Amino acid sequence: MKLSKRGEYALRALIDLGIASELGWPMLQISELASKEKLPIKFLEQIFTQLKSAGYVASRRGKFGGYSLARPTSQIKFGAVIRLIDGPLAPIHCVSQTSYARCSCPDENHCGLRMLMFDVRNAISTILDRYTLADIVEITLRKYRRDKVTPPFLSRSTPLAAVFAEKPEPLGSKLGVAARSRFSGSRGSETNNNPPNPSVN
Asked: Which domains are seen in the chain, by residue range?
């Protein structure tokens, strides 16, 4: 398995949407995401088309439109997204759980290479199928808090959720205050009985 640029950008965009949603901005304009990730808008639009077709994101047209997550972050697993964008996690087809295909080996049952690749596939899928977008968003926000770094989207000039409210509220409104308090409040404590700890290397 090798994560393609398309797969990498899809995951980064989903993490951005998850962070923004956690901070009180459930919808982002594609120009914001493209600017943050330094990606061409057209390329990002192609990726979002695929994510939308699979039910991971939703879109809204118009001046204040954009993209939002179409399901809870706890229901988006990284393994499933990677399979959608890049195909099987297995390094060779004969050990794939989702796209098995017999290889050229004359004795598959006693192939040492296949035995090794089974272990490789299991190690990869165990991690990627365990962690959800919610896990990684929380890990990312916790690191922002630890390093005292303002996360992206927290200081947006116009909260889009307020734009769609009956009475739009100015910057510094309850929405903005709530987002900041969620970031700096008790949920930001480093104390966690069972924190996810994937490798950051």
From this structure: 5-75+132-185 (1.10.10.10), 89-128 (no CATH)
